[in-house]
Write a structure and sequence with these properties.
Strand content: over 45%
Number of strands: 34
Shape: elongated
Distance between the termini: 25 Å
Length: about 450
Amino acid sequence: MKTVVDCTPTSARVRPNGPLLAPYASPSGVPAALVLDFAAGAYQVDGVSQSDPTVFARLSDARVFASDGILRPVAQDVPRLAYEPVTAAAHGLMIEAASTNLALHSEDVTQSDWITDGATTQADMLTDPASGTAMDVLREDTSLASDHRMYQTLSGITGDEWSFSAFVSPQGRTRVKLRIVGLDASSGRINADFDLGSENFETSSSGTASPDITARMTRINALNDIWRLSVSGVPYVAGGAGTLRANVILLDDTGENFYDGDGVSGMGVWGLQVEAAARPSSYLPSQTVAATRAGEFAHVPLGPWFDTSKGTVIAVYRPNGVLDGETVLSFNDASTANAINVALAAGQTQIDVVSGGTNGTAGLSVAQAETQRTVCAVAYETNNIGASWNGGAVQSNGTATMPAGLTQLSIGRLGDDSQPLNGTLERLVYYPERLSDSDLQILSAG
């Protein structure tokens, strides 16, 4: 990606209907004016193939699974192109909010910040997701009728939403529990019990914890049997400033955490992360202090290829957040008062056409699942908005006024840089025409 002042093409032109543009032309033959195919690495502006025209910023390094399935660092201000670690499927450009990993020594649980109970820890025993050999093992001891666990105590607002995530690998035990305990005048706790053998999990809460818990399990390395697990929720609904405890607890073959240890069995653990967030973000390594990853910002300046009165945009994306206050894309004037948005709210993807601060497109929305790959096609002109998702029937709205003064396409954020996507954008294609409803349904099925 590079910084540009204007997107007017300067490199060698190709014919608008030539072979380069053919894969992105609409079914009715309308050529695309802007192509940002992050997954395929193909970029075009007004019929010209070029390097990615997106202006990008992130004031820290970050981590991402590369095309070889390895978790790799990416330097400051360099965009992250994410891949599915097992299948190598390209997920495209990653956009996340800033986040902090409060857990210390995320890759070395033999340090004194991690306390063991009925267990021991051994350093650098297994292959880790970054293709090193830094994964430690939490191994149960021979204590009878005992928990076998490790934990770290942290400071925080116990009534906030928290996420605890870890990379694990079975080493005699295939079941493990992640738990967050709120210790501010309470022992409220949220739990997720994972069975790596059956690839299932269940959640539970107790005490003053909220029963609204989310857990995730994702295999990230089939050869070495590595998974990323997480539990998210509120450990103490009425809590204030206090302490929390993040636990990794071994479970026996029946799923019990209170059992006689054999002194041998255990679980590989690495990359432990505790965030004051409703969902886990990408991995952020820490050592002796909490570590912060900066947020990501991306936009494309609008040029002569953009029509202010009409257009169609196709977006392919995977949200990773709570689906309530995130943005897929926004054509805007560097504010939220004049914009055409594809946004996430109340568990849905919705279309907002905002002119002078007034949203004229109420009701254009569809249910959206977390981490679901979605193809959204939106066509617009005054009093004629249409949208289709994943090949579904076109929804229409006939009351919108087109916003004036649009200057940029914000990727994964609103015009004021708020409401980050917390996910990936695989592809974005813009046409300077209001395509037909038939075209929309065909394009959203792709």
